[in-house]
Design a protein that fits this description.
Structural class: alpha/beta
Helix content: 25-40%
Number of domains: 2
Largest sheet: 7 strands, mixed
CATH class of the largest domain: Alpha Beta
CATH topology of the largest domain: Spore Coat Polysaccharide Biosynthesis Protein SpsA, Chain A
Bound molecules: magnesium ion
CATH superfamily of the largest domain: Spore Coat Polysaccharide Biosynthesis Protein SpsA, Chain A
CATH architecture of the largest domain: Alpha-Beta Complex
Length: 391
Amino acid sequence: MSRCIALIVAAGSGSRVGRSAPKQYTPVAGKPMLRWAVERSLATGAFDHVVCVIGPGQEQLYGEAVSGLTIRQPVQGGETRRASVLYGLETIAEFEPDFVSIQDAARPLVDGTEVRNLIARVEDGYDGAIVALPVVDTLKRGEGEIAQTIPRAGLWQAQTPQLFRYGAILEAHRRAAALPEAKRDALTDDAAVAELAGLRVALVAGRAENFKVTTSADINRLERLLAGVLETRIGTGFDVHAFGPGDHVVLGGIRIPHDKGLVGHSDADVALHALTDAILGAIGAGDIGQHFPPSDPQWRGAASAQFLRHAAELLAQYGGRLVNADLTIICEQPKIGPHRAAMAASVAQILAVPVGRISVKATTTEKLGFTGRGEGIAVQAMVSVTLPAGD
Ligand code: MG
């Protein structure tokens, strides 16, 4: 039996999908994307070991992502994807592999049949084999205007896994590393490195589902594929804080000048408190007081953004996503209208969602009740979230 190692390249630091962590650690259907890639690779049964190449400072994220899985120590990546692959290839020499399957963490839907097809082609005599999709769209070259139509016959879109004879691809990568930068930069996948070295690389038909996750729309698509059916949940939150001495209030994470302040243990951001409770409510995770007890001195004067962020992180851990949030601020003073857009932008930024998903409204109670008498501010929040359907 040939010895085959899966090398998963997960060293990127980019977060184009709109989250703070690198995209390979983005939770998708309840697990970090990298964990899906590793689990899928292990499940193929085709690999003797799975090794990841990770970026600097990602050890903790990585450790959490693969916790409990049977996987080898990760390798530290380099400045570029190509450099990362070379480090990975050099490091796995200790396993004396016959074949190596180089895979992008951002293409987590690895398939056992495909990997076995790749291995079969290399056992047939090819130096390497990659999964790829025949191009079906008509291709145009141009800048704003069509200069040329490119015949699509015989064109393929390269995917990963890309599987090679270990010694051959290691040598090809070492040679590529010695090239001038411009030439190196043109090598955008491992097959290109192999071709440059004169290796013969077979094409194996891949699947459209094995797409590369680049944008937040891709995350949604991946989530639908992995989670099967998503369910929608709602949560509500309500909070009140009384006015006291002061010269401003904090609402929705922004400071609004006023002739009073709001009384509270933290920064008394009644809007963020209601919203935090709404998110916790949607996932059945208790309320803000349980997570951040007012009796705990560490929350004295705390910025409530961290409470909201915590709720959003819990939601993400459940595999959930915020669909929208709607806040109603109930008070006579200060006037909310001039600050609504800034509050929505602030909340959207804390939650790392597009601002169009956040609504901030305001109303008075026609001088009735405690808000009508100007004794405090009440806020009502409602959120909708999606979660993988389950028990
Ligand atoms: Mg409160």
